[in-house]
Amino acid sequence: MEKETKTKTPHCLVIPYPTQGHINPMLQFSKRLLQKGTKITLVNTISNSKTISTINLNKSFQFETISDGFDHGGLTSAKNIETYIDTFRRTGSQTLDQLLHKLASTDNPVDCVIHDAFLPWIVDVAKKFQLPVAVFLTQACCVNSINFHAFKRWLDLPLLETEIVLPGLPKLDASDLPSFLYQYGTHPGYFDLLTNQFSMIDQADWVLANTFYELEQEVVEWLMKIWPLKTIGPCVPSMFLDKRLKDDNEYGGSIFTTNSESCIKWLDTKPKGSVVYVSFGSRASLSEDQIHELACGLKNCGRYFIWIVRETEKGKLPKGFLELSEKGLIVTWCQQLEVLEHEAVGCFVTHCGWNSTLEALSLGVPVIAMPIWTDQITNAKFFVDVWKIGVKGVADEKGIVRRETLEDCIKEMMETEKGNEMKKNAMKWKSAARNCVDEGGSSDENIADFVKELTLRGRV
């Protein structure tokens, strides 16, 4: 008679890179894994665990910490990004080793390590414990492919061509590439961070990408030939998509306090599709000149607007602007998904960070793209030319999007037939995003397959 096999609930150790934009998607993916019957331990850095609020997180999560070597300030207290990454690698490796030893001697040992691609050294530590590894990519697959080509030196750097042709991607101008490639030599620390994320990818058991198959079909298929890739996104709270995870209406970990209630109350008093929502994410810093141009463009366009101006940026606003902007609401932070979901919002002026990009697509909001650096440049190109739900605020020779440009973009979006077409396209993407995470959708199936493969490994 065959020996009966017992199936153990798989336990995943989830390790994001310690910034808001990396923690949020991994948190959302973890909630989907919980729903499918895994145990989750979320690992934060000591410094980040002091500043990030996890009050609203699922009680089923367990929490642990490792050290990045800067326990009293994280990246902000490091000399530069290079020092931070190097110190995090050394100190993180030691403290993760200690954590895995500690967990191995409990009745809750780890079965799999899921780590942010920005932390490739985690693979070495996990493999020492003979643990399978899933690498989590937090950017678009089109951007991952471009950066992978740079890592492999399949792209000549500095760029020699003005037109770039890569498998699975539309023809790109050199200026459509992420800024660290197009402006080669700027921010070498970030260039290394973005290309070295692929240094251990050939040792990963799974490569998980926060995107959805229908959005980037051709490049996903190309990457699936070289990596064990599964698309598992968009990693957006379920109540804004398939609504299968009850009460999942926010990411659950935030480094900012929000003014969402005042935003929603204000929006409730405005006509459908009449409000311009402006936000440049949790990290982007704009020049005083750019903030002045934005302020004048918003005031001159005569539209209602909500503008997220973080506390650190407020001093750059024109004198008296807060009092003068009777059609506008300026807040330091908000629950962006709630605002984007509101029917009063007509368009979204965005820096095109990948999380904001997925949120706009998931909620069917057309965009005015004002990318600043890194992958935002490429995401903006796709908004306009591939997904066809955006116009670009083109910067002048000084790198500033002028007030007249912004006014023209808002007018095109809110008053023209082309703007109506973009709104229709945005609703199609909203439907596609929801379907792929709903039961039986491409991302839902991929998550189910991942859990099944993990469970089979754990059978004894």
Textual characterization of the structure:
There is one protein chain. The protein has 460 residues and is α/β, with parallel strands linked by helices. Helices cover 41% and strands 14% of the residues. It is built from 17 helices and 15 strands. Strands 3-2-1-4-5-8-9 form a seven-stranded parallel beta sheet. Strands 12-11-10-13-14-15 form a six-stranded parallel beta sheet, with helices on both faces. Strands 6-7 form a two-stranded antiparallel sheet. Strand 6 (163-164) and strand 7 form a beta hairpin. Helix 3 (81-104) packs parallel to helix 4 and helix 10 (288-300) crosses helix 15 (403-415). The protein is globular and about 65 Å long. The relative contact order is 0.12. The mean pLDDT is 93.
